[in-house]
Amino acid sequence: MEFWKAILGLLRRILIGPPLILLSILVGGVVYLVLPAHYTTDVSLVLATPVNGGTVNSDKTKQGLTNPFLSFNDALKTGASIVILAMNTQDVWTELGAPKDGPTEITIDDGRTNPNVLDINGPYIYIRVDSESPRQATTVLMAARERVASELFKWQKTLGAPPNTFITSTDIVPPSKPEADHSANWQGAIGGALLTLFLGLGIAYGVVVRRQPRQRRQPEPAAPAAPPAAAPVAIPVPAPEPVEVQAAEPAELPVLDEDSSATMEFPAYRAGPLSPVPGPRKANQDDGEK
Question: In degrees to the nearest 10, what's the CA dihedral of 20, 21, 27, 30?
Answer without folding.
Answer: -140
